[in-house]
Amino acid sequence: MTAKPKIILGIESSCDDTSAAILVGNQIRANIVASQAIHESFGGVVPELASRAHQENIIPVVQAALNQAQIQLKDLDAIAFTQGPGLMGSLTVGTSFAKALALALDVPLVGVHHMKAHILAHFMDDASDAKPNFPFLCLTVSGGHTQIVQVNDALDMQVLGSTIDDAAGEAFDKAAKMLGLPYPGGPLIDQLAQEGNPTTFQFAKPQIPGLDFSFSGLKTSILYTLQGAEKNEPDFRQKNQADLCASIQNSIVSILMDKLDKAVKHTGIKTVVIAGGVSANSELRKRLLAKKENGWQVSIPKMSYCTDNGAMIAMAGSFYLAAGQTVGQDVAADPRLEW
Predict the structure, then answer these.
(1) What is the pTM of this model?
(2) CATH topology of 7-123+308-322 equal to that of 136-300?
(3) What is the pLDDT of residue 248?
(4) Which residues contact 179 (CB under 8 A, 6 or more apart)?
(5) Which of 53, 182, 231, 317 has the fewest Cβ atoms nearer than 10 Å?
(6) Is 262 helix (H, G, I), strand (E, B) or coil?
(7) Residue from 69, 65, 75 nearest 5 by CA
(8) Per-residue pLDDT tens over the stretch 262-271
(9) How many CB atoms lie within 10 A of CB 28?
């Protein structure tokens, strides 16, 4: 007799998206996300406003997920939540809600590492064309993180390289701000880059040893290029917007792919996946897929699983739960949760 698949509620509240998902076995039955448009006018996420919005959104979002999945609270076998890393106020809202609900229902509570969840999202039934085989390499790229991770098993991961300053997503957003584009600017750069020439402008590439990343020098190079050109051509940014976007995107993606190439050579592992918000970038996806010609086994998540979502938390939670890795009511949100 086969065991009944576990039903897990996943709650994500690490930054400015409130999300809840229902996982049954490896199948996502619902994945509801409430985004916070309030931050757009500030040009970035305001932590205090984010935590307040989570407080307003979390109950209706969880209820919407239960309704869509046609699951009742009494059917839940466990509750998984993002323990960290992230914004303290935002994390606290999700952590407190998950603790209270788990206590009321008397079900296990699972604290999930946000970045590990991005990686484990690949194991949902509908996440991508093919689930990666262990061991594999994952390039995790988002607004707050840029890392190359060796994934030996679902619960055995090793960070091989990470950014020493800004993350790739942050570099996209700050470059977009220099061009006068609204927040979040990364997707807009991707969109405008389709109409531009990626070789029009050359920016300084960081010379960082090993598998670590740096994007601060690139941002400075972009700024100096803009300031220098505008001395002679005041409307330079507007007239060259598409070419600038294409060149900026080309520079950031080239930095990411160069390090990924190096990681594959260093480890000998040719199964490679990407995860995190920047994995939605069309140029990054295109260049990674092209690596299949070099014998790489590539897995790319579908768009809805790139950005922060409750589904990835539920999926990671199922691995934690199967290994008996649950937490007690004394658990606390940890904005700098270690690997």
Answers:
(1) 0.93
(2) yes
(3) 98
(4) 185, 189, 226, 237, 241, 244, 245
(5) 231
(6) helix
(7) 75
(8) 999 999 999 9
(9) 26
Question: What's the one-letter identity of residue 155?
Answer: L
- Token pair listed for 108: 């296990």
Residue 25 tokens, joined:
């076995």
In the chain, where the domains are located: 7-123+308-322, 136-300
Rounded to whole angstroms, the Cα distance separating 158 from 135 reads 11
Question: For the segment 160-188, what is each residue's pLDDT rounded down to a tens digit?
Answer: 999 999 999 999 999 999 999 987 889 99
- What is the CATH architecture assignment of 7-123+308-322? 2-Layer Sandwich (3.30)
Mean confidence (pLDDT) of the chain? 93
For the domain bounded by 136-300, which CATH number is listed?
3.30.420.40
Check pLDDT > 90 for residue 304. no
Tell me the per-residue pLDDT of 195-206, one tens digit each, with 9 for 90 and over. 999 999 999 988
Residues in Cβ contact with 288 at an 8 Å cutoff, skipping those fewer than 6 apart:
257, 260, 272, 274, 296, 298, 300
Q: How many angstroms separate the CA atoms of 31 and 9, rounded?
A: 10
